[in-house]
Amino acid sequence: MIFVSGMFRSGTTFFARLLNKTKEVSFASDPFFAVFKDFRNTLSRDKKHLLDPNAPLEDYYFDEEKNSFFHDLQNTPFSELNIPDLAYLKKFTEVSSQPYSELLSKRIPEIAAKTYGEFLKKGAALILETYGSKQVAGFKEVWANEFVPHIIELFGEKTKIIQIVRDPRAIAVSNFYSEGRYPLLFLGRQWRKLASLSYHYSKKYQNVLTVKYEDLIGFPEKTVRDLCTFLEIEFNPSLLDTNDIKDGNNQRWTQNSTFQEGGSEGFNQKSIHRWMEKIDPKTRKAIEFLTYPEMQLMGYSSFEFSPSENLSYEILEDEKEKLAKWILPYSEFDFPKEFEKEKSRLESLNQKIEPKVQKSFFLFGEIYEACKSLFEK
């Protein structure tokens, strides 16, 4: 099994379509997010962790109960949790996967399973049958890095995990120039959660690789060769040709880029630095303020923000009329209060704080220590 994840607007779909070109891998794009979300909702009921089942995956910062649930989720395998309503899960999965993996979506009603683990294993078998009956099945899901331990536990040590990370300023620009933007706080906290998980899992597991979007686009041949070595598959120069990539319905795929001109961009190096021309100063300061330690951890630089800078909570405020309608119920922030939380998080890197607070601010103690070591230089 090959599992790819990362934040949206990070090139995960491009990467998924590229992998499906190989002779060894049958790959699906975003087929099972409904399974992950239903698993989260079922576990939350079992653990009496109250949440809106329609809400996006949480960021788990600044809330002891949320953080505790995150660590419960990390330690609960898919195979240990029964599906409470299989008919609902099949319909949910069929509908949510249809826009991205249309052929696979039509096969979802065939699945019979008792646990979430059984459901995903049978789903993996369907990927192989649907997209070429090759040697290895794979799929990608955006936002879903927190399920890396579950995928490894379910599919075994031969599982290969690839996590894609992109500069959060580029992601913000891509989102803001498309229809239905997300709140700045949501974007910043989700990015640093996913970047932190990428760092943590890359250290914890030998079969996990973190790839930066900027490397994939800027140095395509070297990056794709390295990926093939990691996946133990043969490199073929055709992988660098993006003109014959197929979508989830086996039709020619056009790349989903906010700024594309005339179809698929392929390995367009302009996409790496385009955000610098498009980002407004307020958005840049907000994103850098929210993600500064983790951006350094992932090797990003060129900051306009300085930790010693005297900012106002107003940098976090959104233009509500431009937000996506579905996210409005999850966009009611007390900005002065959230701003103070974020200030305390940054200030903690110059202090000695208890392990429980480290997890609240950085998810894992090791992330806090790694960020602290960079912060002090």
Per-chain topology:
Elements (H helix, E strand, L loop, with lengths): L1 E5 L5 H8 L5 E5 L3 H14 L17 H11 L11 H12 L4 H4 L10 H15 L5 E7 L5 H8 L4 E6 L2 H9 L7 H21 L3 E5 H6 L1 H12 L38 H9 L2 H17 L37 H13 L7 H8 L2 H11 L2
Parallel strand pairs: 1-3, 1-4, 2-3, 4-5
Helix pairs in contact: 2-4, 8-12, 9-13, 13-16
How would you sum up this structure, described in words?
Helix content is 47%, strand content 7%. 45% of the residues are buried. The longest helix has 21 residues, at 184-204. A 5-stranded parallel β-sheet has the order 2-3-1-4-5, with helices on both faces. α2 (33-46) packs antiparallel against α4 and α8 packs across α12 (270-278). The protein has helices at 12-19, 33-46, 64-74, 86-97, 102-105, 116-130, 148-155, 168-176, 184-204, 213-218, 220-231, 270-278, 281-297, 335-347, 355-362, 365-375; strands spanning 2-6, 25-29, 136-142, 160-165, 208-212. The mean pLDDT is 92. By secondary structure, the protein is α/β, with parallel strands linked by helices. It contains 16 helices and 5 strands.
